[in-house]
């Protein structure tokens, strides 16, 4: 992280925005030690999305992480569910998290996810909301882990993954709930490319600078038509969110989440580093 | 095959169902020597689908074969077409074969195809109806051979393949009518993965046991939403079936099927082992 | 190119049609030195499409190039825009270029693009309109370069690429505007396969002869149903065309095109050979 960068959004605590130039911003997830997502993260993120939508000079945004080992992780289950569900609906009419994801897909700029470390649950959903994703071959770990703990994912991967990688591989990712390394993610088309970790920053930076030099009108109008050919409807995204909330409320799921915490979930260490494997231990 | 396994469906003759556990069944195609599909096979299969749909404990089904060299092969053309077309419509309103295929995609359990040997025509259509497919690198041979003999495929690959692997590769598979080995099938996304034959059983078994340990409600609701994003309508499946039946009735097609039989089709040996190549000889 | 081949369409100047057999034609783009596409090219092409649609014996068409280094390139920007936009609408109601592309996807024969050299803009759009594409590993260069010069592509890649290769890679191709070699195009599913240049002709010829031996009714009816599952609507194609024309008229785009010409665009040499790289120099 460039030391000259600083938070541009007032009171930002878990997400940092820095401007590489007027047309190229970096949005850095920075909620150590595990980069979990709770309600405060969502409030900050919604503010950043508003800035991305309205800045006239902005053309490209790169999402990355300042937390070693975690791009962006699952939700914070130590927070009461009501704190999440009481957040106001966004302008799309969707609840806070799917609202952010849908607005990112529609934003008139190019969004790029740069994946190092775990992109699990919310991290994978951000990736799928971005226009492109490049992953570290050695350090990326992508997953939708929800079914393994009795949940349904809330940020729309049931709608987006089959359109991106086909039904069979989408079902493997979602129902298998396992950790996926960079090269398999590339082979499945889950990410654009998996690159050697040493090359990842240079590659993404060069692409961002390149696209940032192009015409914003052409970027937006091209993206708008790609969206028309590829995005699920908001109703489909809403259906996923509603089933997710219903799943969390089920006693069977609450029991599994509690048992997973007893195994080390939500604490730095083996369980968070190997969620895929630990789901087998949980369900043994 | 585990020697303790036995048929669980009464009078089963061409398909065996065995229960690895209450939540994990194996459905094994066993119609030697060529694993052809005729009307009796369909009647048995429909009964098995009903059991899969209604069993409350079942969570994962693996489809495999007990016939060396053949996962599941084309239809039995020695049977009168009327024996097939006179089978009753299924509950979806579709004819017997597409009814089975559609209901498998909707079943509230995970279905996995494990491909060893030839999956041609019906075998490929079962694969495309399953949630995931894993293929033997050395022994899988997948194809939609129908156009090569003047037919149109009946189990919906025109609807399913383009959504799974894109229009260009779907057209290559369908119009080229050639045999496709495991690694090319993986590269095209026709199967989830191609694995060394020696690893295939262990991999699929471990995945089945893993998913079988997860929560059925979460599996079903996740699959339901993936289906909403990825399945063709039943009308599209019906259109494929109707054109297939029309194609079989054409004198030009009947002549080609007869000539193919004269080349060894329907008998164990070279023609059945190399259908792709023999289609060139047929049409020379 | 077989020396016995000759133009079959009267007055053909930029596109040659030769008949390998009654059921197998080759359509060869031959507008040296850069294989640019201008209004005259479109008029010839429309005539050829009419012949492809109506010939009763024809079953397979291979598109290739007679110009070293260029399969089919971008439009000719030295021609007044009015000469293009004043061409009559085609039978689909679409303007001349999207009309040709849509009719190729619907033609009752198999169309195969054989890519050697640059397939940029129109060349990529033809590829996406064909049923299959095979690319030279060493010599294919595929791109949608339009955004790099402030344009939106006119032949529908915003509609077709996401359905073929997924949203993320489609956006990378379109917004990145960079040159893509054969192997990356294969990995992305942009082409069916990338083959060693020395094998490409034999492979495509064998496939064309194979499919040409099959039954035309079966080919057409299979393709028709794949189309139903995979093609965008004509309205979506029209939207892309309209935005393209609007983009060309923008002063910012005109200025970029002029500046690109000053860098060597439209002349044989480095700029045309490395459009992807030169777009960075243009936008510096």
Structure description:
The structure is a homotrimer of 284-residue chains. In chain A, helix 1 (39-54) packs parallel to helix 3 and helix 5 crosses helix 6 (167-176). In chain A, strands 1, 2, 3, 4, 5, 6, 7 and 8 form an 8-stranded mixed beta sheet that branches. Chain A has 284 residues and is of the alpha/beta class. In chain A, a hairpin with a 2-residue loop joins strand 1 and strand 2. Chain A is built from 13 helices and 8 strands. Chains in contact: A-B, A-C, B-C.
Q: Distance N terminus to C terminus of chain A?
A: 41 Å
- Gross morphology of chain A is globular
Mean pLDDT of chain A, as a whole number? Answer: 95
User: If helices are DSSP runs of H or I spanning 4 or more residues, what is the number of helices of chain A?
Assistant: 13
Note the quaternary state here.
homotrimer
Largest interface: A-B, 43 and 31 residues
Share of helix of chain A, binned: 40-55%
What gyration radius of chain A follows from the Cα positions, in whole Å? Answer: 18 Å
* Proportion of beta-strand residues of chain A: 15-25%
């Amino acid at each position: 992280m460039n030391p000259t960068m600083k938070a541009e959004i007032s009171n930002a605590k878990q997400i940092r925005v820095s401007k590489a130039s007027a047309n190229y911003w970096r949005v850095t997830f920075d909620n150590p030690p595990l980069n979990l997502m709770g309600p405060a993260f969502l409030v900050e993120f919604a503010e950043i999305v508003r800035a991305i939508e309205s800045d006239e000079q902005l053309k490209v945004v790169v999402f990355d992480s300042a937390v070693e080992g975690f791009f962006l992780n699952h939700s914070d289950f130590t927070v009461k569910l009501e704190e999440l569900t009481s957040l106001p609906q966004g302008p799309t009419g969707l609840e806070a998290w799917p609202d952010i994801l849908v607005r990112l897909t529609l934003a008139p700029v190019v969004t790029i996810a740069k994946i190092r470390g775990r992109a699990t649950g919310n991290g994978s959903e951000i990736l799928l909301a971005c226009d492109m994703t490049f992953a570290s071959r050695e350090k990326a770990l992508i997953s939708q882990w929800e079914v393994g703990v009795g949940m349904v994912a809330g940020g729309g991967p049931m709608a987006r993954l089959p359109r991106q990688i086909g039904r069979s591989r989408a079902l493997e990712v979602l129902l298998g709930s396992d950790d996926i390394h960079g090269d398999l993610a590339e082979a499945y088309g889950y990410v654009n490319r998996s690159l050697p970790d040493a090359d990842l920053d240079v590659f993404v930076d060069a692409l961002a600078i390149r696209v940032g030099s192009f015409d914003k009108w052409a970027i937006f109008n091209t993206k708008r038509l790609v969206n028309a050919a590829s995005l699920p409807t908001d109703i489909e995204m809403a259906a996923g969110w509603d089933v997710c909330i219903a799943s969390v409320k089920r006693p069977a799921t609450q029991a599994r989440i509690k048992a997973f915490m007893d195994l080390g979930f939500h604490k730095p260490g083996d369980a968070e580093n190997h969620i895929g494997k630990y789901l087998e231990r949980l369900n043994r």
